[in-house]
Amino acid sequence: MGAASSRDAPDIQPRNQPAEAEASASESACPVPEAYRNPAVYNVYSQRINDPACPIALPQVDPRNNMPIEPNQMPSPGQRKLLSTSRATSDIPKGGTASTWTYPSPQMFYNALKRKGKDDGVTEDDMDSVVAAHNSMNEMTWQHVLQWERLRAHECGQPTLLRFLGRPHELSPLARLQSWRRGTLPFDRHDWYVDRCGKEVRYVIDFYFHDDKAGTPEAFTLRVRPAVDSLDAVVDRLK
Length: 239
Fold this sequence. Notes:
Number of strands: 8
Oligomer: single chain
Largest sheet: 4 strands, antiparallel
Number of helices: 4
Mean pLDDT: 76
Distance between the termini: 26 Å
Order of helices and strands: EEEEHHEHEEEH
Radius of gyration: 19 Å
């Protein structure tokens, strides 16, 4: 969702939903709200985490023991300072639910960087600003998605973010074309899957960092557009 939205950093994490864990096996006991017609609920790895028979989300579980997986909020080995475990709530509606996605805490972010070996030059003191940039970039991305979705407002007035996939090592066609022209390459790419009231549509997002503007709001830019997966997407792109 650079620090802002890279697989090199943790993506948005789904909020724990203990109140929803007692969903009845009866489909009638847990109907899909009208605004959220896609019953699927996914985690940050694009894995479905709810019972297909019931659209209400269940806790994410470890398939090895069927026990709930809790986010790692413990300090990493060698960590010198305690980091906040507080998690900010996003404004991005979470597909299949009536809630929103929740961002990682500074401790979760730091742990993910350490786990992936991407912590060179990163200190505990950097985490608050890194997490803030990550959250801001994702909020900005969603606003761009909503601008496109207004073209389909007659189909759905309340789109939600169903799932997303980081693809940092794959250039989108637009980024590849720009590379041929020796333009700036994106530091990350995401594919976001939006629930358009029961219809799943994919968006491609390229994230750019401009070294010559480092330290300014213009250092990060993004390009958001519908993936050309359907005739509707082609029409929207032409518009």
